[in-house]
Amino acid sequence: MRVLVCGAGGFIGSHLVRRLKAEGFWVIGADLKYPEFSRSVADEFLIGDLRDPFFVRQAVSGVDQIYQLAADMGGAGYIFTGENDAAVMHNSATINLNVLEFGTQAGVRRFFYSSSACIYPERNQVDPLHPDCSESSAYPAAPDSEYGWEKLFSERLYLAYSRNRGVDVRIARFHNIFGPEGTWEGGKEKAPAALSRKVAEAEPRGSIEIWGDGQQTRSFLYIDECLEGVRRLMESDVTGPLNIGSEEMITINDLAKTIMEIAQKPLKIRNIPGPTGVRGRRSDNRLIEQELAWQPTQLLRAGLAKTYPWIANQVAANQLRAVTAGA
Predict the structure, then answer these.
(1) Portions of the chain given CATH number 3.90.25.10
(2) Beta pairing partners, 210
(3) CB of 179 within 8 A of CB of 303?
(4) Of the listed 147, 161, 222, 308, which one is catalytic?
(5) Which is the CATH superfamily of the domain at 2-178+220-244?
Protein backbone atom coordinates (compact mmCIF):
# COMPACT_ATOMS: atom_id res chain seq x y z
CA MET A 1 0.00 0.00 0.00
CA ARG A 2 1.31 3.46 -0.93
CA VAL A 3 0.92 6.10 1.79
CA LEU A 4 1.75 9.80 1.77
CA VAL A 5 2.95 11.55 4.93
CA CYS A 6 2.44 15.31 4.69
CA GLY A 7 4.81 17.07 7.07
CA ALA A 8 7.36 14.24 6.80
CA GLY A 9 10.20 16.64 7.50
CA GLY A 10 8.80 17.51 10.91
CA PHE A 11 9.13 15.83 14.29
CA ILE A 12 6.06 13.57 14.38
CA GLY A 13 5.99 13.12 10.61
CA SER A 14 9.58 11.85 10.39
CA HIS A 15 8.98 9.36 13.21
CA LEU A 16 5.75 8.25 11.52
CA VAL A 17 7.58 7.59 8.25
CA ARG A 18 9.95 5.31 10.15
CA ARG A 19 7.06 3.46 11.80
CA LEU A 20 5.18 2.96 8.53
CA LYS A 21 8.30 1.71 6.74
CA ALA A 22 8.88 -0.80 9.54
CA GLU A 23 5.33 -2.06 8.97
CA GLY A 24 5.97 -2.64 5.28
CA PHE A 25 4.26 0.35 3.62
CA TRP A 26 5.62 2.16 0.58
CA VAL A 27 6.02 5.64 2.04
CA ILE A 28 6.16 8.97 0.26
CA GLY A 29 7.15 11.98 2.33
CA ALA A 30 6.22 15.55 1.41
CA ASP A 31 7.43 18.73 3.08
CA LEU A 32 9.24 22.03 2.62
CA LYS A 33 12.35 20.43 4.09
CA TYR A 34 14.00 17.14 4.92
CA PRO A 35 14.08 16.02 8.57
CA GLU A 36 16.59 18.13 10.44
CA PHE A 37 18.21 15.52 12.67
CA SER A 38 18.26 12.25 10.71
CA ARG A 39 17.95 11.03 7.16
CA SER A 40 14.41 10.15 6.08
CA VAL A 41 13.75 6.48 5.37
CA ALA A 42 10.86 7.33 3.01
CA ASP A 43 10.89 5.49 -0.31
CA GLU A 44 10.33 8.85 -2.00
CA PHE A 45 10.66 12.33 -0.52
CA LEU A 46 9.07 15.26 -2.33
CA ILE A 47 10.34 18.72 -1.46
CA GLY A 48 7.71 21.38 -2.05
CA ASP A 49 5.06 23.64 -0.59
CA LEU A 50 1.76 21.97 0.33
CA ARG A 51 0.09 25.37 -0.08
CA ASP A 52 0.84 25.02 -3.81
CA PRO A 53 -1.98 23.17 -5.66
CA PHE A 54 0.39 21.97 -8.40
CA PHE A 55 2.73 20.37 -5.86
CA VAL A 56 -0.13 18.74 -3.95
CA ARG A 57 -1.59 17.25 -7.14
CA GLN A 58 1.80 15.69 -7.80
CA ALA A 59 2.16 14.39 -4.23
CA VAL A 60 -1.26 12.71 -3.97
CA SER A 61 -1.12 10.93 -7.33
CA GLY A 62 -1.31 7.14 -7.00
CA VAL A 63 -1.61 7.22 -3.20
CA ASP A 64 -3.91 4.91 -1.19
CA GLN A 65 -3.81 6.74 2.16
CA ILE A 66 -2.69 10.15 3.42
CA TYR A 67 -1.43 11.10 6.86
CA GLN A 68 -1.83 14.89 7.06
CA LEU A 69 0.40 16.30 9.81
CA ALA A 70 1.72 19.41 8.05
CA ALA A 71 0.91 22.68 9.84
CA ASP A 72 2.31 26.05 10.78
CA MET A 73 2.74 25.54 14.51
CA GLY A 74 5.01 25.83 17.53
CA GLY A 75 5.10 26.22 21.29
CA ALA A 76 3.67 28.99 23.49
CA GLY A 77 6.30 31.46 22.33
CA TYR A 78 4.99 31.14 18.76
CA ILE A 79 1.28 30.47 19.20
CA PHE A 80 0.26 32.82 22.01
CA THR A 81 2.04 36.09 21.19
CA GLY A 82 -0.56 37.00 18.54
CA GLU A 83 2.17 37.97 16.09
CA ASN A 84 1.83 34.84 13.94
CA ASP A 85 -1.95 34.41 13.86
CA ALA A 86 -2.51 35.27 10.19
CA ALA A 87 0.29 33.00 9.01
CA VAL A 88 -0.82 30.13 11.24
CA MET A 89 -4.42 30.25 10.02
CA HIS A 90 -3.71 30.89 6.34
CA ASN A 91 -0.88 28.39 5.95
CA SER A 92 -2.48 25.49 7.79
CA ALA A 93 -5.96 25.98 6.33
CA THR A 94 -4.56 26.19 2.80
CA ILE A 95 -2.61 22.97 3.29
CA ASN A 96 -5.69 21.11 4.51
CA LEU A 97 -7.93 22.47 1.75
CA ASN A 98 -5.40 21.40 -0.88
CA VAL A 99 -4.59 17.96 0.52
CA LEU A 100 -8.22 17.03 1.04
CA GLU A 101 -9.59 18.38 -2.25
CA PHE A 102 -6.88 17.07 -4.54
CA GLY A 103 -6.50 13.86 -2.58
CA THR A 104 -10.21 13.21 -3.00
CA GLN A 105 -10.00 13.96 -6.73
CA ALA A 106 -7.09 11.50 -7.01
CA GLY A 107 -9.12 8.72 -5.37
CA VAL A 108 -7.28 8.50 -2.05
CA ARG A 109 -9.10 5.93 0.10
CA ARG A 110 -8.44 7.20 3.62
CA PHE A 111 -7.13 10.36 5.31
CA PHE A 112 -5.65 10.76 8.78
CA TYR A 113 -5.78 14.31 10.15
CA SER A 114 -3.74 15.44 13.16
CA SER A 115 -5.81 17.94 15.10
CA SER A 116 -4.85 19.33 18.50
CA ALA A 117 -5.90 19.65 22.13
CA CYS A 118 -5.78 23.40 21.45
CA ILE A 119 -9.32 23.14 20.04
CA TYR A 120 -10.82 22.76 23.53
CA PRO A 121 -12.66 25.74 25.05
CA GLU A 122 -10.61 28.02 27.26
CA ARG A 123 -13.45 28.09 29.83
CA ASN A 124 -12.92 24.37 30.51
CA GLN A 125 -9.23 24.82 31.25
CA VAL A 126 -9.12 27.59 33.87
CA ASP A 127 -8.73 25.18 36.81
CA PRO A 128 -5.20 23.73 36.60
CA LEU A 129 -6.20 20.72 38.69
CA HIS A 130 -9.48 19.81 36.95
CA PRO A 131 -9.42 20.66 33.23
CA ASP A 132 -12.12 19.19 30.99
CA CYS A 133 -10.75 17.95 27.67
CA SER A 134 -13.27 15.26 26.90
CA GLU A 135 -14.04 15.06 23.19
CA SER A 136 -17.67 16.04 23.78
CA SER A 137 -16.62 19.30 25.49
CA ALA A 138 -15.36 20.92 22.27
CA TYR A 139 -18.63 22.77 21.65
CA PRO A 140 -19.75 25.51 22.12
CA ALA A 141 -16.35 26.30 20.65
CA ALA A 142 -13.99 28.81 22.28
CA PRO A 143 -10.32 27.90 21.71
CA ASP A 144 -7.74 30.20 23.31
CA SER A 145 -5.68 30.66 20.12
CA GLU A 146 -6.10 31.08 16.37
CA TYR A 147 -4.09 27.87 16.02
CA GLY A 148 -6.88 26.09 17.89
CA TRP A 149 -9.59 27.73 15.75
CA GLU A 150 -7.88 26.61 12.55
CA LYS A 151 -7.56 23.06 13.85
CA LEU A 152 -11.26 23.02 14.72
CA PHE A 153 -12.19 24.38 11.29
CA SER A 154 -10.11 21.70 9.60
CA GLU A 155 -11.72 18.96 11.71
CA ARG A 156 -15.06 20.12 10.35
CA LEU A 157 -13.61 20.29 6.84
CA TYR A 158 -12.58 16.63 6.95
CA LEU A 159 -15.92 15.58 8.42
CA ALA A 160 -17.77 17.55 5.72
CA TYR A 161 -15.81 15.76 2.98
CA SER A 162 -16.62 12.48 4.70
CA ARG A 163 -20.34 13.26 4.57
CA ASN A 164 -20.54 14.86 1.13
CA ARG A 165 -17.77 13.20 -0.88
CA GLY A 166 -17.68 9.75 0.71
CA VAL A 167 -14.13 10.22 1.95
CA ASP A 168 -12.95 7.92 4.77
CA VAL A 169 -11.33 10.05 7.49
CA ARG A 170 -9.70 9.54 10.88
CA ILE A 171 -9.14 12.49 13.24
CA ALA A 172 -6.93 12.61 16.34
CA ARG A 173 -6.42 15.44 18.80
CA PHE A 174 -2.76 15.39 19.88
CA HIS A 175 -1.80 16.44 23.40
CA ASN A 176 1.78 17.78 23.63
CA ILE A 177 3.84 15.13 21.85
CA PHE A 178 7.56 15.10 22.68
CA GLY A 179 10.71 13.05 22.19
CA PRO A 180 14.13 12.99 20.49
CA GLU A 181 14.55 14.75 17.14
CA GLY A 182 11.96 17.38 17.98
CA THR A 183 12.45 21.14 17.69
CA TRP A 184 14.42 22.26 20.76
CA GLU A 185 15.40 25.87 19.99
CA GLY A 186 14.39 28.84 17.86
CA GLY A 187 11.02 29.77 19.38
CA LYS A 188 8.82 26.93 18.11
CA GLU A 189 9.89 24.34 20.67
CA LYS A 190 7.41 23.05 23.25
CA ALA A 191 7.81 22.87 27.03
CA PRO A 192 9.71 19.54 27.45
CA ALA A 193 12.25 20.52 24.79
CA ALA A 194 12.54 24.15 25.91
CA LEU A 195 13.08 23.20 29.54
CA SER A 196 15.52 20.43 28.62
CA ARG A 197 17.53 22.96 26.62
CA LYS A 198 17.50 25.47 29.48
CA VAL A 199 18.65 22.84 31.97
CA ALA A 200 21.40 21.63 29.61
CA GLU A 201 22.63 25.18 29.00
CA ALA A 202 22.52 26.32 32.65
CA GLU A 203 25.64 26.56 34.77
CA PRO A 204 25.80 24.16 37.73
CA ARG A 205 23.81 25.57 40.67
CA GLY A 206 22.51 28.29 38.36
CA SER A 207 18.89 29.00 37.41
CA ILE A 208 16.39 28.74 34.57
CA GLU A 209 13.45 30.95 33.63
CA ILE A 210 9.88 29.69 33.32
CA TRP A 211 7.03 31.78 31.93
CA GLY A 212 4.18 32.44 34.35
CA ASP A 213 3.97 31.16 37.90
CA GLY A 214 4.79 27.62 36.80
CA GLN A 215 1.61 26.22 38.33
CA GLN A 216 -0.08 25.82 34.93
CA THR A 217 -0.57 22.10 34.21
CA ARG A 218 -0.19 19.93 31.13
CA SER A 219 0.06 16.30 30.10
CA PHE A 220 2.79 15.19 27.70
CA LEU A 221 2.94 12.09 25.49
CA TYR A 222 6.09 10.37 24.27
CA ILE A 223 6.39 10.03 20.50
CA ASP A 224 6.28 6.20 20.36
CA GLU A 225 2.97 6.15 22.24
CA CYS A 226 1.57 8.77 19.87
CA LEU A 227 2.46 6.68 16.82
CA GLU A 228 0.84 3.60 18.34
CA GLY A 229 -2.38 5.55 18.86
CA VAL A 230 -2.27 6.93 15.32
CA ARG A 231 -1.83 3.51 13.77
CA ARG A 232 -4.56 1.93 15.88
CA LEU A 233 -6.98 4.70 14.95
CA MET A 234 -6.09 4.53 11.26
CA GLU A 235 -6.66 0.77 11.12
CA SER A 236 -9.95 0.97 13.04
CA ASP A 237 -13.45 1.81 11.82
CA VAL A 238 -13.60 4.82 14.19
CA THR A 239 -13.71 8.28 12.60
CA GLY A 240 -13.03 10.32 15.74
CA PRO A 241 -12.05 12.86 16.79
CA LEU A 242 -10.22 10.99 19.55
CA ASN A 243 -7.71 12.35 22.04
CA ILE A 244 -4.22 10.90 21.75
CA GLY A 245 -2.41 11.98 24.86
CA SER A 246 -1.43 11.09 28.41
CA GLU A 247 -3.58 11.44 31.50
CA GLU A 248 -0.50 12.02 33.67
CA MET A 249 -0.72 15.73 34.52
CA ILE A 250 2.15 17.84 35.87
CA THR A 251 2.83 21.51 36.62
CA ILE A 252 5.43 23.22 34.46
CA ASN A 253 7.59 23.90 37.53
CA ASP A 254 7.49 20.19 38.40
CA LEU A 255 8.26 19.29 34.80
CA ALA A 256 11.40 21.38 35.07
CA LYS A 257 12.32 19.75 38.38
CA THR A 258 11.91 16.29 36.87
CA ILE A 259 14.27 17.20 34.04
CA MET A 260 16.77 18.56 36.57
CA GLU A 261 16.64 15.25 38.44
CA ILE A 262 17.29 13.31 35.23
CA ALA A 263 20.17 15.64 34.41
CA GLN A 264 21.44 15.43 38.02
CA LYS A 265 21.63 19.20 37.93
CA PRO A 266 19.92 21.07 40.82
CA LEU A 267 18.94 24.52 39.60
CA LYS A 268 16.76 27.37 40.81
CA ILE A 269 13.58 28.36 39.01
CA ARG A 270 12.83 32.01 38.22
CA ASN A 271 9.21 32.55 37.20
CA ILE A 272 8.88 35.50 34.84
CA PRO A 273 6.08 37.07 32.77
CA GLY A 274 5.45 35.37 29.44
CA PRO A 275 2.84 33.58 27.30
CA THR A 276 1.45 30.48 29.02
CA GLY A 277 -1.79 29.46 27.32
CA VAL A 278 -4.56 27.90 29.38
CA ARG A 279 -4.11 27.16 33.10
CA GLY A 280 -4.69 23.43 32.82
CA ARG A 281 -4.83 20.80 30.08
CA ARG A 282 -4.84 17.01 30.27
CA SER A 283 -5.93 14.35 27.83
CA ASP A 284 -9.19 12.61 28.68
CA ASN A 285 -8.68 9.03 27.50
CA ARG A 286 -12.05 7.51 28.31
CA LEU A 287 -13.28 7.58 24.70
CA ILE A 288 -10.14 6.15 23.09
CA GLU A 289 -10.10 3.34 25.63
CA GLN A 290 -13.76 2.65 24.89
CA GLU A 291 -13.40 2.81 21.10
CA LEU A 292 -9.97 1.24 20.58
CA ALA A 293 -9.47 -0.70 23.85
CA TRP A 294 -6.16 1.14 24.24
CA GLN A 295 -4.54 4.09 25.94
CA PRO A 296 -0.91 5.09 26.55
CA THR A 297 0.91 3.56 29.51
CA GLN A 298 4.44 5.00 29.46
CA LEU A 299 5.19 7.39 32.32
CA LEU A 300 6.35 10.92 31.57
CA ARG A 301 9.66 10.44 33.35
CA ALA A 302 10.57 7.50 31.11
CA GLY A 303 10.06 9.61 28.00
CA LEU A 304 12.02 12.52 29.46
CA ALA A 305 14.86 10.16 30.33
CA LYS A 306 15.19 9.41 26.59
CA THR A 307 14.63 12.98 25.44
CA TYR A 308 16.87 14.99 27.77
CA PRO A 309 20.14 13.25 26.82
CA TRP A 310 19.41 13.80 23.14
CA ILE A 311 18.80 17.53 23.67
CA ALA A 312 21.83 17.82 25.96
CA ASN A 313 23.95 16.35 23.16
CA GLN A 314 22.52 18.90 20.71
CA VAL A 315 23.37 21.73 23.12
CA ALA A 316 26.91 20.41 23.62
CA ALA A 317 27.42 20.10 19.85
CA ASN A 318 26.24 23.69 19.36
CA GLN A 319 28.56 24.95 22.05
CA LEU A 320 31.48 23.07 20.49
CA ARG A 321 30.72 24.57 17.08
CA ALA A 322 30.60 28.05 18.61
CA VAL A 323 33.99 27.54 20.28
CA THR A 324 35.52 26.13 17.10
CA ALA A 325 34.15 29.00 15.01
CA GLY A 326 35.58 31.53 17.44
CA ALA A 327 39.00 29.93 17.59
Answers:
(1) 191-218+249-278+299-326
(2) 271
(3) yes
(4) 147
(5) NAD(P)-binding Rossmann-like Domain (3.40.50.720)
The residues with which 268 forms a beta bridge, in sequence order, are 207
Q: Please choose, from the candidates 110, 79, 108, the residue with its C-alpha nearest in 3D space to the C-alpha of residue 194.
A: 79
**Which tens digit of pLDDT belongs to each residue from 88-134?**
999 999 999 999 999 999 999 999 999 999 999 999 999 999 999 99
* Residues 65-78: tens digit of each pLDDT: 999 999 998 877 78
Kind plus residue range of the DSSP H or E element containing 28: strand 26-31
pLDDT over 70 (residue 327)? no
What's this model's pTM, rounded to 2 decimal places? Answer: 0.95
pLDDT of the residue at 88: 95
Query: Which 8-state DSSP code applies to residue 6?
Result: E
Least confident of 7-11, 50-54, 75-79: 75-79
- Within the chain, all domains assigned CATH 3.40.50.720 are found at 2-178+220-244
Kindly report the length of the chain. 327
Q: Is 248 exposed, middle or buried (0-12, 13-18, 19+ CB in 10 A)?
A: middle
Superfamily the domain 191-218+249-278+299-326 falls into: UDP-galactose 4-epimerase, domain 1 (3.90.25.10)
67 is catalytic: no
Q: Which of 26, 35, 29, 36 is nearest to 5 (CA)?
A: 29
Mean pLDDT of the 155-171 span: 97
